[in-house]
Amino acid sequence: MSRRVVITGMGAVTPLGTGVEKFWNGIKENKLGFSYIDAFDTERTGVKIGGVVRDFDETAYFEEKGCFDKKEAKRMDTFTKYAVVAAHEALTDAGSDFTDVDPYKAGVIVGCGIGGIDLTLSEYSKYLEKGPGRVSVFYIPMMISNMAAGTISMKTGFKGANFDVSTACASATHAIGEAFRKIKDGYLDVCLAGGTESTHEEFTYAGFANMKALTKSEDLERASIPFDKERNGFVLGEGSGVLLLEEYEHAKARGAKIYCEIAGYGATCDAYHMTSPSPEGDAAGMGMTLAMQEAGLTPADVDYINAHGTSTGLNDKYETRAIKNAFGDKAKDVKINSTKSMIGHLLGAAGAVEAIVTAKSIEEGFIHKTVGYKVPDEECDLDYCVEGNVQQEVRAALSNSLGFGGHNATICLKKI
Q1: Would you give the DSSP letter of residue 257?
Q2: What is the pLDDT of residues 167-216, one digit of tens each?
């Protein structure tokens, strides 16, 4: 049995704003979600700029059914709060609580790359200063990265497949792809899928900075510059994106608004290096090819790629090679951009937020500019939408995520 899968709801918490409307308007206006870090002394890491969520007021959700009250909030890490709020928005957007669906056919698959690292640091400080007896009894259930998915199920009553995908920067795209397959193959009828991450503390910045992954630029406009020859690292971001995936006939029967169809998914591994993508781009290219094949499409049918596009020296040139491997002569014709040029790298949440951008691009026929780009790179020689936003029909699109460890994930979305 093979069934069609569509997106009928979306929710987002991002450095450009909380809520899909605010986030998407910022994208269309080419706004930067970056700000100067003020939570700690940046002299120690040398990293001045972050993609920080600034407008998230958890008290605003205390009276919202499906979110959390004050007591519950104290027992949730930030990454879980972000995911619960994004899931609540996605369900509200979908216009149903899905009580007509067998609860065991309703799932939650939410990826997370790191989990509650900020909580770990604070509890470890207690442990060092006051001993093991002072470590919170809630530390473990608050910190573990699967708790975002688990908490969402408690809020929604969804009792079907429920798990956390942790494949670093590819976590959310893998989560969406796995949810797509569960519905396509008949195991689920509906699924909340996406990713979440909370990163805004010095320790995480130090880890990424010491491996030379982060930009040390002090210019907001030149901090995240994917595919630009002067790129020198990514901007670390945070937030959450959650999408409501639904079986097409069920969505049609209830008169749901449908953003687009998820039609294909490719998952591969470089089997090459801990942090560097494969120089040949063979496995990442195969991920794109598999997603197109499952969707029944050829490269000529795909108008747009939302690239992983991290603004690191290796990723951008190797992803360019991967696109050429997958698209051949058609690589020059496809529009490519990087949403990270405006919000930075949201790690385990990146693929979900970028999937939202891809879905909105299909819905509105709008492809955003890769912001900040100035200096061409001969090794990145495709169309990265550097001149400005593009208004055109998007029949089908790919969204790529490439994670440390060589994890590659691509989803194929198409107009319905």
Answers
A1: -
A2: 999 999 999 999 999 999 999 999 999 999 999 899 999 999 999 999 99
* Cβ pair 79, 149 in contact under 8 A: no
Q: How far apart are CA 102 and CA 107, in angstroms?
A: 10
Measured CA to CA, the distance from residue 227 to residue 19 in angstroms comes to 28
Q: Which of 94, 347, 118 is nearest to 241 (CA)?
A: 347
Tell how strand 5-14 and strand 260-269 pair up: antiparallel
Q: What is the residue type of 128?
A: L
| Structural tokens at position 18 | 């909380």
Beta strands in 158-223 (DSSP E): 162-163, 190-197
Q: How many CB atoms lie within 10 A of CB 55?
A: 13
Query: What string of H, E and C letters represents the secondary structure of 119-156?
Result: HHHHHHHHHHHHCHHHCCCCHHHHHCCCHHHHHHHHHH
Q: Which of 285, 248, 242 is nearest to 266 (CA)?
A: 285
* Structure tokens, 300: 């000529």
pLDDT per residue over 14-51, tens digit each?
Answer: 999 999 999 999 999 999 999 999 999 999 999 999 99
Tokens of 147: 């708790």
- Residues with a known catalytic role: 169, 308, 345
User: Which pair of structure tokens corresponds to residue 90?
Assistant: 């996605």
Which H or E run includes 414?
strand 407-414
CA 176, CA 111: separation in Å to the nearest integer? 9
Residues 338 and 353: their CA atoms lie apart, in Å, by 12
CA 57 to chain centre: 21
34/221 Cα distance (integer angstroms): 9
Of 123, 339, 313, 132, residue with least CA distance to 215:
313
Cα angle value 49/51/56 (rounded, 5°): 130
Residue pair 246/237 in contact (Cβ under 8 Å)? The answer is no
pTM for the structure as a whole: 0.97
Three-class secondary structure of residue 416 per DSSP:
coil
- Whether the CB-CB separation of 347 and 169 falls below 8 Å is answered with yes
Which amino acid belongs to residue 255? G
SS3 249: helix
Interatomic CA distance for residues 292 and 263, integer angstroms: 8
The pair of three-digit structure tokens given for residue 27, joined into one six-digit string: 């994208």
For the record, the structure tokens of 215 come out as 């930009």
